[in-house]
Design a protein that fits this description.
Blueprint lengths: L6 E8 L4 E8 L9 E4 L58 H20 L14 H5 L1
Antiparallel strand pairs: 1-2, 2-3
Length: about 140
């Protein structure tokens, strides 16, 4: 993994079916660099203390008055098929802790899987192989 400082994602690139990369723009006026395209299969955005949600605005995603993404209980945004989790979502569903963000990310992935595959996602917790009746008695 490579961390890119003083850059912004100028554009998310795709082929109409999946993410193919991002176009970065240097966020430093002292440098005259052209945008750089980076091929990707997955993208994770670290937002810092302020929700970095500007890329979603042109898609029609609805935000609350503080700039956080409004989501349903299934963590789906106002745009069908776009899910959000963690510190970027409205505080109604977020606790602002890393453990909460991780859990919400897992839930969002489950809901996204169910939405895209039109089937129920595998259980996040799995199935116990322990026969509790035999142990108790």
């Amino acid at each position: 993994m490579e961390v890119k400082y003083k850059t912004q994602i100028a554009e998310i690139l795709g082929d109409g079916q999946k993410l193919t990369g991002v176009r970065l723009a240097v966020d430093d006026s002292s440098q005259e660099l052209s945008p750089t395209d980076i091929p990707l299969e997955r993208l994770f955005i670290e937002i810092g203390g302020v929700p970095g949600t500007a890329l979603l605005s042109p898609l029609g995603v609805v935000f609350d008055k503080m700039g956080f993404i409004q989501v349903s209980e299934a963590l789906e945004t106002s745009v069908p098929g776009i899910f959000a989790a963690g510190d970027v979502i409205s505080h109604k569903f977020s606790i602002e802790q890393i453990s909460s963000a991780v859990g919400l990310g897992a839930r969002a992935a489950t809901f996204a899987f169910s939405s895209f595959r039109k089937q129920r996602a595998p259980n996040l917790w799995g199935t116990s192989q322990i026969n509790r009746k035999a142990q108790n008695g």
